[in-house]
Specification:
The protein has about 325 residues and is of the alpha/beta class. It is about 40% helix and about 15% strand. The structure holds ligand NAX. GO terms for molecular function: L-malate dehydrogenase (NAD+) activity.
Length: about 325
């Protein structure tokens, strides 16, 4: 197998839970391919950068053949310079008593400065996947802060919601996840999201789908915390790998990606929203021409309305 040039991949929040799984999957070639070496850049905040050094030590100890170099830093320029892909995982968690508006504000600052640094230093064809919550609005802020890049280069992770939907359908029917096609999760990565199976080949009871499956998928993050004692980490990393893999290599079937809206299905242009998409030649295309029922329209509108409210709450960061 002939080796290609190394690609630089930046992972923020490198000392955190998701990164602890994600970095190894990237290093194993699960995103860019088994013939593509990677230069890994691990970004952390100064208080935690030493812990990220420990993660880098373990990566070295794994002697992974595709790892060309590992850089640990709290410097945005060092982290993003010439990066071809960036996983923006690090964000401010909601602390006790913190309002959603405060959370949006604290994260707004992080994603403004990271968007600017990506704008100034990353490769011109960089792909940026925002994982840190509130992911859709953080991605909106980062895209806005990078005026020299196309906003289509900024996505938010909703593949976990997609994969959770597949997992529930497989468990219910006894089929394998790969047996289902044309699944999508519309809207925001939050409890308002709309997992949609209307166009799929899944044959399940409508009442189960509406009353059990939709809330189960939408609240799965909270359920994992309750049962596992900490938030989704390996599944989130796995979904991030799936998203970036498909962005690079393309897809045949539908995938859920939160991408900037082009106005399709009444979603305001620019909002970063979960849609049914297909990826061709490195570009996500929103599946067109779907006839939506009133139920689908209502569910999509409710989640998009939440995205509008989040955008409103950070409007001061989106000026200029
Ligand atoms: P952790 O708290 O374990 O790790 C986050 C790390 O980010 C910390 O080490 C922190 O120091 C670092 N960090 C904070 N600000 C930073 C900055 N400005 N630059 C670089 N690093 C910074 O969280 P983890 O479990 O890894 O989750 C990370 C994020 O993913 C959270 O916001 C979480 O809510 C979000 N999630 C998103 C999901 C999705 O599907 N979109 C699902 C899983 C997860 O809930």
């Amino acid at each position: 197998m002939s080796m290609t040039q190394p690609v630089k991949v930046t992972v923020t929040g490198a000392a955190g839970n998701i990164a602890y799984s994600l970095l190894w999957r990237i290093a194993a070639g699960d995103v860019f391919g088994k013939d593509t070496p990677v230069d890994l850049a691990l970004l952390e905040i100064p208080a935690v950068v030493e812990k990220a050094e420990g993660v880098a030590m373990e990566l070295r100890d794994s002697a992974l053949p595709l790892v060309n170099s590992i850089t640990v830093t709290d410097d945005l320029k060092v982290a993003f310079e010439d990066a071809s892909a960036a996983f923006l995982v690090g964000s401010r968690p909601r602390s006790k008593g913190m309002e959603r508006a405060d959370l949006l504000e604290a994260n707004g600052a992080i994603f403004t400065e990271q968007g600017k640094a990506i704008n100034d230093y990353a490769a011109r064809d960089v792909r940026v996947l925002v994982v840190g919550n509130p992911a859709n609005t953080n991605a909106l802020i980062a895209a806005h802060s990078a005026p020299d890049l196309d906003n289509s280069q900024f996505n938010a992770l909703m593949r976990l919601d997609h994969n959770r939907t597949l997992g529930q359908l497989a468990a219910k029917t006894g089929k394998a996840t790969k047996d289902f096609s044309k699944i999508a999760v519309w809207g925001n990565h939050s409890a308002t999201q709309f997992p949609d199976i209307a166009f799929s080949n899944a044959e399940v009871d409508e009442q189960w789908y509406r009353e059990e499956m939709i809330p189960k998928v939408a609240k799965r993050g909270a359920e994992i915390i309750e049962v596992r004692g900490s938030s989704s980490a390996a599944s989130a990393a796995s979904a991030a790998v799936d998203h970036m893999h498909d962005w690079v290599h393309g897809t045949e079937d539908w995938r859920t990606a939160a991408v900037p809206s082009d106005g399709s299905y009444g979603v305001d242009e620019g909002l970063i929203c979960g849609f049914p998409t297909i990826c061709r030649d490195g570009k996500w295309e929103i599946v067109q021409g779907l006839e939506l029922s009133d139920f689908q329209k209502e569910r999509i509108e409710a989640s998009v309305q939440e995205l509008r409210e989040e955008r409103e709450a950070v409007a001061h960061l989106l000026k200029g």
